[in-house]
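Entry 14. Ran structure prediction on the chain below.
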Amino acid sequence: MTPIKLIAFDLDGTLLDSVPDLAIAADQAVQALGYPSVSEAQVRDYVGNGADILIGRALSQSLQVSAELSDELRQKARVLFDDFYEQTGHKHSHLYSNVKSTLCRLAEQGFTLAVITNKPSKFVPAILEQHGIAEYFVDVLGGDAFEKKKPDPMALNWLMEKHQVSSEQMLMVGDSKNDILAAKNAGCRSFGLTYGYNHGEPISDSQPDFVADDIGELLNVLEIRA
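Output, structure tokens:
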């Protein structure tokens, strides 16, 4: 295996369980517009494709966004969602097991680490700081950093060009098929985690190069002593 130099991590469902706060914000936004309440369990299924899709699904009460929702309504709901999400203070979100220790060990070993998330960029730096992991990342790319989100490889390709690494030297770590497809589309390897948000589908169905129940398994894959 060609030595990995650059590792990109998804955020929600990979490093951080953010659904409790996202659910509060989505529920408040749809109710403010006179739509039925959404539960945390529903939102756990709806996340993964960015905030616009999340709020569209919440309004539709379905993974399929209703074509009957007007653009004006969805835009209004998105503004409300952003406001309510900021007001949560992200105090109900938490890192998954072994995230911080794994990132610390990877940084010590000289790997270049980045975040590629479909979450809106304006929320990401503060969340990383709040959970004590901002220092480990050289690049932090939100869902609006580029014209296209994952599963498009645009952000991954940008990172490879910036850091002058080949696709064989990059690894994408994520919990959803969007992460695995982005890696495949960029020609790099992928590490899929079983515990995140993948619309009820096993991450193994997307055929990542590695599958694990714990992010700490990254150290074994990269032959690093914990």
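Residues 19-88 form a domain with the DNA polymerase; domain 1 fold (CATH 1.10.150.240). Will compare against last week's run tomorrow.
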